[in-house]
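Hey team,

Filing this mostly as a record. A colleague (T.K.) asked me to run one chain through the structure pipeline before their review meeting, and I want the input and output archived in the tracker in case anyone asks later how it was produced. No errors, nothing strange. Just documentation.

Input sequence:
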Amino acid sequence: MQLSDRQRLLYLYVREGWRRFSRRLALGRISAMRFSGSTPDRLIVAPTDLHPADSFAGEEMTAGRFPLAGRSLDCEDESPFALELPSEEFAVRLHSFGWLRHMRLVDPEKASQTTRFVVDDWLQSHGRVIGGLAWRPDVTAQRIIAWLSHSPVVLKDADYPFYRRFLKSLAFQVRYLRHVAETTRDGEPRLRVRIALAMASIAMPSSPSKMRKAARHLDEELDRQILPDGGHCSRNPRAALDLLLDLLPLRQTYVNLGHDMPLQLIPCIDRIYPALRFFRHQGGELALFNGATYTLANELMSALRYDETGGAPFKALPSINYDRLAVKETVVLMDTGLPKSVDLSSTAASGTLSIEMSSGKNRFIVNSGRPRFAGEAMRQMSRMTAAHSVATLNDTSSSRISTSRFLGPIVIGGVSKVDVSRTERESGADGVTATHDGYLKRFGLLYERDILVAASGGEIRGREHFYKPGNPSGPVERGTAVVRFHIHPAIQLYRASANETRLVAPDGEAWALTCLDVPVEEEEDVFFADPSGVRASRQLTLTMPLAEMPEVQWSLARQR
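Output structure:
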């Protein structure tokens, strides 16, 4: 390890230690008495929940079975909080109470009885002692939003003592969240905390000063996290959608109640929509970059039906650094950036220069995506360069991710610079050339990728090139690079020759991947971002022995 790397690690350890110390100092001693206060006598409004609901999940819950996070817990007339939970992600979903939305679609009497029983047990088992996963700021924020939005279900036919306990706990959680907001982990969790506090300030009785303060803090966070091109600072396409599904009901609640709206709320919503369209393949799915997982069609449509911005998708998002090549029915998306900060890199992937390609309604080449409900080991595997449609040098990821439990899985090295140029020709062809330095310190090489979509939209030409700085045409002594094309599980592969493989979609559309420089190999693969869970898939690879072949060219051509 070079001295500069040691210095960087030392800085990160000191920085994390100071952050933890500052958080403890700011929080002081946490106790129930510290956040005690008055109890509101009523709720003013129940904000709308735009997340899709599932009647089957609701029926299961009223029968005592909780299907959450890819697992199912049979409670047998007990509260789920009295049982051992099957996974951490299951616990997050359970404690955040987003599952209340499913109860809207079942028998109202059964739904209310079930939800009151579970909520009341949470109040008894977790509502009196602050600590653990249940009181993580992001989980608390989601619970506040869920309790406010679904209070009609929870409080239907409730007796007065339960009504008071529910409101008392809501007010207590809001006071706690106000106190920990500034020390919440940066990125989506901190913004969701501000959304929850703004929503609580207008959905519950509050003084004008508290409403203005909540709106001001939300403005500051929106302005910082939703960048000028509409992308979220995490560079995760899915994050913007998840936030939008909370921001839209908040906007409507402000309008319905006639309160002054946070100044950044509408402009940020209007910026997010074009960014979502940028990442959307024509079949309706969002691209799988930087921690994004699958997106169900009804989730995306729940947000897009409120889109009033219109217009064609942008060709690039310069703030979060992505490029889009779109010619007729063919779309290629390319990651041309790196994490915005260390704090925001805990879910960032080492997939710089990776691509996704779709034609019509079919996704042909994808990244493996992030598993929504798998364990930590698989989540970290999904962040490796090998899980992306890009070249990997010497089985090494282009960005280094910390394995330290103290630092967490942040990016600690690798890609520090990406150079990008666009090629837009009068003929209608569209291309991008990009270079990153992720392998420079370890192997002394730069990696350049050139992608061009022909004017017909029926051909994509690619070039992969490894070279020493200042000598692009010089020899490379050693090393092996593997260019991976992860194939969507719905696509069938047929080997035409050693140098050509056909990709065939369910509707019969076919493309052929050809490389005359090296063989096109078919290998086993894993697709992490499938709604059914992690599943087997296939990948096509080009192996480059750099001493003999520092550059290869390939093409994807639509078959007639």
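Quick notes for T.K.: The chain is about 35% helix and 20% strand. Residues 3-27 form the longest helix (25 residues).
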